[in-house]
Amino acid sequence: MQRFIRFFFTGLVAALVLLAGAACGEKPAIEAELTFAPAVPPPLDRGPAHVTVKMETSEVRMRLADGVEYVFWTFGGRVPGPFVRVREGDDVEFHLSNHPESKMPHNIDLHAVTGPGGGAASSFTAPGHTSKFSFKALNPGLYIYHCATAPVGMHIANGMYGLILVEPAGGLPEVDREYYVLQSEFYTKGRFGDAGLQPFDMQKALDENPAYVVFNGSVGALAGDNAVPARVGETVRLFVGNGGPNLVSSFHVIGEIFDAVYQEGGTEANQKNVQTTLVPAGGSTIVEFKLEAPGTFLMVDHSIFRTFNKGALGMIKVEGDEDLKVYSGKQSDEIYQPEGGAVQTMPASGQAQAPARTKAERIAAGKIIYERNCQACHQAGGQGLPNAFPPLAKADYLKNKSQAIRAVANGLTGPIVVNGEKYDGVMPALGLKDEEIANVLTYVLNSWGNSPGEVTPAEVRAQRK
Questions:
Q1: How many Å apart are CA 95 and CA 85, to the nearest integer?
Q2: Are residues 136 and 210 in the same domain?
Q3: Residue where one domain finishes, among candidates 167, 200, 226
Q4: Which region among 341-350, 379-388, 431-440 has the lowest average model confidence (pLDDT)?
């Protein structure tokens, strides 16, 4: 009871202070609510205020992908940095603290700031120090912020970016849900999926050849259990940023059409019925769409190899009733067998994978290869797709090890039977190295109820054409 009374009177005093300030023509003083992706602070139902923003820079070792770690340079200990929501006309007092254990000085350039360096010139902060500067939120819109300490590209490439929304004085149109999505690249010494702690590769950054292109700081940050929820009939707004540092994003939601697009982060919905919208490096966009069908909708960069081979994939899981007039699902499936047709062989995947020393290492490496090359067709649980891609879970086809190796190494065309069901399609040769094929098949054999086993590179070599 005493705690309740203390809380009540504390809130009452705060409210009276705000009212007194407003009566005297002073702006109320508040501290900004900051949220980490994919969360967004709620809309601001208030007038102009004196807003304090407190943010810390730190250098943190975290997950980049399964089995892969990276030392990220961060705002707030996460990548991307927190979402900041202020209002047009606010006076913003910005406090930037650099953690004492940081090895580098850092600062912040907010594209929402009108002033030298977007605040960078006033916020250069050594480890163990705090800097303060102020600015007026003059122009509404959705803006990137990033570190601008030299070498600027390296600070951004290591994870120092986020979004700040200067909400228009009249607010944005009301929607049911808002989410924060930020695309960026990572340039690691190893290629995609190489295990262990990966260092930054300056030459790859200069060549604009990232090993990873991701949403919200890591592979899978918006997928699987991390997918964002919604319901049929709701309108969703995505605040989409691109931290770069190099690539332009072709942002697309598979199975949805953007009802409204606020191009380049402006405050006017200047385009409707858009399939894919460009988001420049160091830029943003706002998209809105009403959900009219249930299911899992994929957020992708439609420079599509970035999605399925470098990590730029997110999910919106939509619950609700089906409307068969909007989308029927498959209504029939008939045999179609045209004459001719050649099997396409994909180019080699490049550098050979480091040899696995144990079966457990082979399984772990194979999981990464499977997710990169096989999962889109055979699905995350190996269940395949009916009448299209055969299952790998409890698959009798895999009991003949040599047959399975030949299918992956050489490609496969023509009819096969798996678990009593006939499949007649084309599986292209994927250009995988002997070590990679051994690893991915070992992973599959030890997953989803299959008979455990191991495939070696020597066995793969024996089955190649």
A1: 15
A2: no
A3: 167
A4: 341-350
Q: Kindly state the tokens that stand for 372.
A: 């990169």
User: Hey, what's the torsion of the CAs at 342, 464, 431, 442, to 10 degrees?
Assistant: 120
Please give the structure tokens belonging to residue 427. 């599986």
Closest by Cα among 296, 332, 328, 139 to 222: 296
The string over 274-304, giving b where at least 16 C-beta atoms fall within 10 Å of a residue's C-beta and e elsewhere, is beebebebbbbbbbbbebbbbeebbbbbbee
Q: Which of 106, 241, 142, 229 is nearest to 177 (CA)?
A: 229
Query: Which tokens hold the place of 113?
Result: 């700031």
CA 265/CA 109 separation, integer angstroms: 17
Query: How far separated are the first and last CA of the chain, in Å rounded?
Result: 80
Q: What is the CATH number of the domain that holds 368?
A: 1.10.760.10
- Amino acid of residue 400: N
Going by pLDDT thresholds of 50, 70 and 90, the confidence category of residue 25 is: low
Say which residues have a Cβ less than 8 Å from residue 1's Cβ, sequence separation at least 6: none
Instruction: Please indicate, yes or no, if residue 255 is contained in any of the structural domains.
Output: yes
pLDDT digits (tens, 9 = 90+) for 35-69: 999 999 999 999 999 999 999 999 999 999 989 99
Residues in the chain: 465
Quote the pTM value: 0.73
Angstrom distance (rounded) from CA 308 to CA 254: 13
Distance of CA 269 to the CA centre of its chain: 24
Q: How far apart are CA 133 and CA 145, in angstroms?
A: 15
Whether residues 192 and 283 share a domain: the answer is yes
Residue 384: which domain range? 359-463
Q: Per the domain annotation, does 30 fall within a domain?
A: yes
Beta carbons within 10 angstroms of residue 90's beta carbon? 24
Question: How many CA atoms lie within 13 Å of 159's alpha carbon, on the beta-carbon side?
Answer: 27
Give dist(CA 218, CA 216) in Å, integer. 6
**Same domain, yes or no: 218 and 292:** yes
Q: How far apart are CA 209 and CA 363, in angstroms?
A: 28
CATH number at residue 243: 2.60.40.420
Is the predicted pLDDT of residue 12 greater than 70, yes or no? no
